[in-house]
Automatic annotation (TrEMBL):
The lineage of its organism: Bacteria, Bacillati, Actinomycetota, Actinomycetes, Micromonosporales. It comes from the Bacteria. This is ROK family protein (Putative glucokinase). Residues 6-71 form the HTH marR-type domain. One of its GO terms (molecular function) is kinase activity. The keyword Phosphoprotein does not apply.
Length: 392
């Protein structure tokens, strides 16, 4: 992608995040000379990115004309999980105009999964959500080469290695696309419109089918040299632990994730040490992480202990990250965030106890504000940033 003018992109981001503003106010905010601002706005109007939005409220003098992002802008946001597809089409302000959520199996492969994504996007077009897309953002549950727009050796995504996700979506929909790791897009979403709004240095921890960490440093996502920074699910926490999907033993993800918690819950139910889990196993033939959460709410001692054990594992890894990166906030999201405050309290306890006091003296550890929307919200931000860069 070619080098773009950051001031130009900031102009479009301001209109995205703030809504309609006057030319004078926009110039003041961006400290952009008025002749250049007017020339940029005229060019963006001609390109279809900006439109006039009526007159500002009167302040006693001549009323200013407002400008805003074009009401015709549309971005697609896709969050692929291990067992779900979430798709939204949003306008220029990143407000949803169409949304679809359904179960899916990422192991069915890229052709099947992306075909379904394309079908959902075409359905949105038929239903009138858009005439054309200006950009697409998509997150996948595995390591991604952000530069190349492809997954790279993703442990839980057989058949996806180096699959040209960006190229396929661009060709299918006739617009630029951007591909990132799912936890990165969740961090971006939380930074844009969630509890981490305006926090420049924070960690977003996704605990679900897998475990990952989105890293924000100095107001930007840190992806590392090859795009795999934050893959904390494969840090070893127990050398004698179970085999992980990556092929190693005792990874954090192998001892505490959605699948690992379901396995532990099943064992507890069969051993009849948990009345709540045994009852659910007898009734349905299986138990899930959600059953553990519900059992804990009911006061089942084993369910509470399973959650605390997992929180202790996660907290021990985060304590090292806190001492290393010194973030301003830790946000916990993903499917297992539904385990709630028992999990959160255990993570906090371990982090505060094992990290340096200077790093934890003012460190909030909180649950995601956006919840299951964090991923699509972040994918929409990425898509809009891509389109704004293309317009520069």
């Amino acid at each position: 992608m070619r080098t773009v003018d950051p001031l130009h992109v900031q102009l479009l981001r301001t209109l995205r995040d703030e809504g309609a503003v006057s030319r004078a106010e926009l110039g003041d905010r961006l400290q952009m000379p008025r002749p250049r601002l007017l020339a940029e706005l005229e060019r963006l109007v001609n390109l279809g990115y900006v439109a006039e939005a009526g007159l500002a409220a009167s302040r006693g003098g001549r009323r200013s004309t407002l400008v805003e992002l074009s009401p015709h802008l549309r971005f697609a946001a896709v969050d692929l999980g291990a067992s779900s597809i979430d798709v939204e089409v949003v306008n220029g302000r990143l407000e949803p105009v169409a949304a679809y959520t359904e179960p899916a199996d990422i192991r069915s492969g890229p052709k099947v999964t992306l075909q379904r994504v394309n079908e959902l996007l075409h359905k949105a077009r038929v239903d009138g959500a858009y005439e054309r897309l200006d950009a697409i953002g998509i997150g996948v549950p595995g390591p991604v080469s952000f530069r190349d727009g492809v997954p790279v050796s993703p442990p839980i995504m057989p058949g996806w290695d180096r699959f040209p996700v960006r190229e396929l979506l661009t060709r299918e929909h006739g617009c630029p696309a951007v591909v990132d790791n799912d936890v990165n897009i969740m961090a971006i979403g939380e930074r844009h419109g969630g509890v981490a709004h305006s926090v420049d240095d924070f960690l977003f921890i996704k605990i679900g089918t897998g475990i990952g960490c989105g890293i924000y440093l100095n107001g930007e996502v840190y992806r590392g040299t090859d795009g795999c920074a934050g893959d904390i699910g494969h840090i070893q926490v127990d050398p004698n632990g179970p085999m992980c999907s990556c092929g190693n033993l005792g990874c954090l993800e192998a001892v505490f994730s959605g699948a690992a918690l379901a396995r532990a819950a099943t064992a507890a139910a069969r051993a009849e040490v948990s009345p709540a889990l045994a009852e659910r196993l007898a009734a349905r033939g299986a138990v899930t992480a959600l059953d553990v959460a519900q059992g804990a709410v009911e006061g089942d001692v084993t369910c509470i202990q399973l959650i605390r054990d997992g929180g202790r594992r996660v907290g021990s890894v985060l304590a090292g990250l806190v001492s290393f990166t010194n973030p301003s906030m830790i946000v916990i999201g993903g499917g297992l965030a539904q385990l709630g405050h028992i999990l959160l309290a255990e993570i906090r306890s371990v982090v505060y106890r094992r990290s340096l006091p200077l790093a934890t003296g003012n460190l909030p550890v909180v649950l995601s504000e956006l919840g299951p929307r964090a991923g699509v919200a972040g994918a929409a931000v990425l898509a809009s940033d891509l389109a704004f860069g293309e317009a520069a």
